[in-house]
Amino acid sequence: MTTALSPSGTLRARITGTGAWAPPRSVTNEEMAKIVDTNDEWIVKRTGIKTRRLIAFEGEYTTADMGEQAARQALEAAGVDPLELDLIIVGTVTPDLRCPSCAVIVQDRLGAKKAVAFDVSAACAGSLFALSVADKFIRSGAARKVLVIGGETLSTITNWQDRNTCVLFGDAAGAFVVEAGPADGPGLVDVRIYSDGTTWQHIYIPSGGSKRPSTTEDISERRDRLVMNGREVYKFAVRALVEASKVILEKNDLTIKDVNLVVAHQANLRIIEAIGERLEVPLTQFVINIDRYGNTSSASALVTFDEARRAGRMKSGDLVLMLAIGAGMCWSSALYRV
Ligand SMILES: CC(C)(COP(=O)(O)OP(=O)(O)OC[C@H]1O[C@@H](n2cnc3c(N)ncnc32)[C@H](O)[C@@H]1OP(=O)(O)O)[C@@H](O)C(=O)NCCC(=O)NCCS
Question: Rounded to an integer, what distance in angstroms lies between the CA atom of residue 40 and that of residue 50?
Fold first, then answer.
């Protein structure tokens, strides 16, 4: 679609291609039970997770490797050449290197020479934060074709001796090509982002940053790995995402009855069920893949959207509610008109 760049208000960010990629082999709960004291019944009952894909189990992949694969699928689906990209934004907290960004590595791999590339750090909400940035660039006319990636190898920052966390996560990447389209056409109706810094200690990594570079002892004590207060995160996630859903619908003169499909971050099936109950949306209206992927952090919302799109669950004119939440706490809601 050709759309002249024009001032804010006359453009809408339209998702013209999607892609998703994860390491090939599914790792079962029984395999996790060989690593920590856990079992299939507990994991399925408390989280809904049956298998996850982990980079360490087959082949050697990085966040940029997975992001590149997902991006190539999305670019092909959109019919966009990498040279046409104005912007590449990667939502990740597990970039290949601490410096430079994962986005510039993907830019190099794709040969997207004309793009500007950078990462955003909002943990599991990273891809929707990236989508929000893409939306603002497109609406303002500053960019016309944007590649948004959510890619994460949380297995590289997981404490593999902590059963409270290590069974939850999976590695994956998802990608969107987002292009400028007319404001009355399909595309992002609204995307809202939030953070509450008072809750940063709910999920964090004690060492390895400038505050506390990891010593040998930190590494042997696994202080360079993620710690999480699961119960607090659970309660916060349900409350924040229900509220964010209500706000975005109200601000756009819509109600939950207008929503056809919910693409929510796959952190825990019980979180999704609780959100559904409070919003009065049946579970059948949610896209669920946590059973096969676990929590893939910033990849989750994009992988889930891609899966629903390929499965034909999005029809022209449908309204999709997207939700994500992660460490920070940072969270986001978006409304997308197919
Ligand atoms: C982590 C989470 C699954 C734990 O579920 P929960 O129902 O809150 O479980 P609890 O933490 O209360 O633990 C209950 C018991 O199970 C045990 N347990 C924890 N992990 C276990 C595992 N993998 N296998 C077996 N038992 C486990 C605990 O030790 C505890 O035992 P205890 O009662 O003897 O102390 C849940 O809190 C959650 O999903 N939180 C949100 C996490 C999240 O989404 N994080 C990412 C944000 S994007």
Answer: 7
**265 flagged as catalytic:** yes
**pLDDT tens-place string over residues 208-239:** 999 999 999 999 999 999 999 999 999 999 99
pLDDT per residue as tens digits for the range 117-156: 999 999 999 999 999 999 999 999 999 999 999 999 999 9
Of the three residues 185, 204, 226, the one that is the final residue of a domain is 185
Ligand 1 geometric centre to CA of 287 (Å): 23
Is any ligand 1 atom within 6 A of the Cβ of residue 267?
A: yes
Confidence band (pLDDT; 50, 70, 90) for 5? Answer: very low
- Confirm or reject: Cβ of 167 under 6 Å from ligand 1: yes
Q: For this structure, is 99 an active site residue?
A: no
Q: Do residue 175 and residue 230 come from a single domain?
A: no
**Strand blocks (E) in 267-308:** none
> Per the confidence metrics, is the pTM higher than 0.70?
yes
- 102 catalytic? Reply is no
